[in-house]
Amino acid sequence: MNNAMTHYMELLATSQPWHLLIFMAVPVICAETLAITELIILFTRNLAGKAKAVSKVTGIFAGLYFLGIFIYLFVNAVIPLTATGGWRGPADVIAVGFYLSGIIPFLGMALLEVGAIGRKRDEVGKLKLHAIFVGIFLVVAHVAMIFGMLNPELLMIKAM
Asked: Under 8 Å CB-to-CB from 60, ≥6 apart: which residues?
């Protein structure tokens, strides 16, 4: 087994530090900010304070930012890799797929914050939905990171 990398890790390792900042640091900082503000709101029950304002701005920013990442990587990585058979095995597909699936909770949060979804929910209902989106993002991001760090040859079935 050689030291092959998934495309996820290769993306983060190239063009240092820019790719790491653009594709990892900004989304993770947004997710952590959202998680912390969710906890503050939960413990203080202040649905109109500074933490709520930070959460709202961060949720909208994260959704729009990650939409840009999703479109860029889908067009420049997923389509070409799929068309040319360039995937490096199941771990590679899982890492990239889960990373890109972060668009669902991040865009969901943004849509919730601008009132495009969840209009009939009260503030507590919106807070619950927001917290669910944060949790989903944290799960998919961690699955992407775990599989992204694997040598992609580990999950490949080789003929004996």
From this structure: 109, 110, 113, 114
Q: How far apart are alpha carbons 16 and 36 in whole angstroms?
A: 28
pLDDT band for 2, please (50, 70, 90 cuts): low
State the burial class of residue 141 (Cβ atoms within 10 Å of its Cβ: 0-12, 13-18, 19+): buried
Retrieve residue 18's tokens.
Answer: 């820019």
In three-state secondary structure terms, 150 is coil
What is the crossing angle of helices 90-100 and 123-149, to 10°? 160
Tokens of 60: 């909208």
pLDDT value, residue 148: 95
Q: What is the average pLDDT score of the chain? A: 94
Largest CA distance in the chain: 63
> What gap in Å lies between CA 99 and CA 142, rounded to an integer?
9
Element of type H or E holding 110: helix 103-113
pLDDT digits (tens, 9 = 90+) for 58-106: 999 999 999 999 999 999 999 999 999 999 999 999 999 999 999 999 9
